[in-house]
Specification:
The chain is mainly alpha-helical and 229 residues long. It has helices at 5-19, 30-37, 41-53, 76-84, 87-102, 110-121, 125-143, 146-158, 162-196, 200-217, and strands at residues 57-60, 64-67. α1 crosses α3 (41-53), α5 runs antiparallel to α8 (146-158) and α6 runs antiparallel to α7. It is elongated, with a radius of gyration of 21 Å.
């Protein structure tokens, strides 16, 4: 008996949940999916099209089928690199980039002080993360370097992925809101004050210390020793 479209779609959905649970996860190729679902290739493609129309998957010729909605506004291959990044990858990249950015002499710290105040006022996990993300993006914005702004926004996009959100939720539950509004707020403040004083090395150290604190809370290993910029 030939499998119906709805049954194929439902079986494909269960495979999606098992094999690609997070946004950006890659599904097996069609030839493997066909066998897993137990249907013809034509029926499989109909089921894939149904899930794509629902925004559950997106496909790109030559690259595969992925969980979630198709990335908007950026090249697909760059987006795939972003989607493939783990929380550890993201924090490693941030530790390499953000301290030198903070070490630049920045004339305008009004935006940074505003973002600092928003972080101290946050009272739940979602508000804490939004404020923290906005603070770190503001570091690049006041540097007025369009490439740095683009890179920090790229990092910001990675923080929206389900795999990061799950890890961040576990971390947040361990450390709690007080850690973010007080200890992390104090660390942000030291970055801002060093920038305001035009002390690049101090800003570098303050940002590196802040990111190291986040990594420790996430259970990630310390970064290798690097020279201050």
């Amino acid at each position: 008996m030939r499998m119906g479209r709805q049954e194929a779609r439902d079986r494909l959905w269960r495979i999606l949940e098992e094999r690609a649970p997070a946004a950006g996860d890659r599904l097996p190729p069609e030839r493997a999916l066909k066998d897993l679902v137990g249907c013809s290739r034509e029926t499989l493609r109909t089921a894939l099209a149904a899930l794509e129309a629902e925004g559950q998957i997106w496909r790109h010729v030559g690259q595969g089928t992925f969980r979630g909605r198709a990335p908007l506004g950026r090249p697909v291959r760059d987006a795939l690199l972003l989607e493939a990044a783990t929380p550890a990858d993201l924090m490693d990249a941030r530790r390499l980039l953000e301290p030198p950015v903070a070490a630049r002499y920045l004339e305008d710290v009004v935006l940074l002080r505003r973002r600092l105040a928003e972080g101290r006022a946050a009272r739940d996990r979602a508000a804490c993360e939004r404020a923290d993300d906005a603070f770190h993006r503001a570091i690049a914005e006041v540097a007025r370097n369009p490439l740095l702004i683009a890179l920090l926004r790229h990092f910001s996009g990675a923080r929206c992925r389900a795999v990061w959100q799950r890890e961040w939720d576990r971390t947040y539950r361990r450390v709690g809101v007080e850690e973010f509004t007080h200890a992390h707020g104090d660390q942000h403040a030291r970055v801002v004050e060093a920038i305001a004083a035009g002390d690049g090395p101090a800003a570098h150290r303050a940002m590196a210390t802040h990111l190291a604190t986040i990594c420790a809370a996430m259970g990630l290993p310390p970064a290798p020793e690097t020279a201050e910029g």
